[in-house]
Amino acid sequence: MLLPNGQSRPGILMEVLYVPSFQKNLFSSAKAAQFNVETLITKNQSVLRSSINRETLGYAILSDGLYILQCQQKLPSRQSLSTITKPNQFDSIDLWHQHLGHISEARLRLLAPTYGLHFQENAKLKFCLACALGKAKRALTSKGPIPLANQPLQLISTDIFGPFPPSIEGAHYYYTFVDSHS
Question: In the 3-class helix/strand/coil scheme, how is 70-115 assigned residue by residue?
């Protein structure tokens, strides 16, 4: 990595996921924090430093809204995903499912030959709580019929609709108010 003073410092990024089709490399400050690396963000740059001894480890310069980490990639330009993570081993199909954004089993099998994903051919995805929660729908809160009011303005229901193209007066939403008595 390059330091702000122009000197270079060798370093190894651990637990890296290599995706050849990405045009940019992404760096996780949260993951770095697990390895005692702090990310200090300023207006034009981000400094990486050890949270143990405060030694500067590297920096990134702001460019087009992204902080560009100042380092040189040591990997060949075209390597498979699995060769970088675990050479000559089968990974769990569930691990790739999570790494690739909870992609379906069918899509994983489709991507496997192209990107060198290695998992056992007869492997099946196990139950994924994150996928189940993502597909869950909110239960209805009403347990029975809404009682009617005995007099006007005792029970009023409201709803909001929109956004819509602006009305003549510039409104984008409209409300409804229904008196349950009438």
Answer: CCCCCCCCCCCHHHHHCCCCCCCHHHHHHHCCCCCHHHHHHHHHHH
Angle at 78 between CA 83 and CA 63, to 5 degrees: 110
Token duo for residue 124 = 């099946």
Domain boundaries, the chain: 1-78, 81-135, 143-182
Quick one: which of 84, 147, 149 has its CA closest to 117?
84
CA–CA distance, 103 with 81 (Å, rounded to integer): 16
Per-residue model confidence (pLDDT) at position 72: 53
pLDDT of amino acid 75: 42
Does the structure show a pLDDT above 70 at 80? no
pLDDT at 115 over 50: yes
User: Are the C-beta atoms of residues 73 and 19 closer than 8 Å to each other?
Assistant: no
**Burial class (CB within 10 angstroms; exposed 0-12, middle 13-18, buried 19+) of 117:** buried
Instruction: Spell 34-52 as b/e; 16+ CB within 10 A means b.
Output: eeebebeeeeeebbbbeee
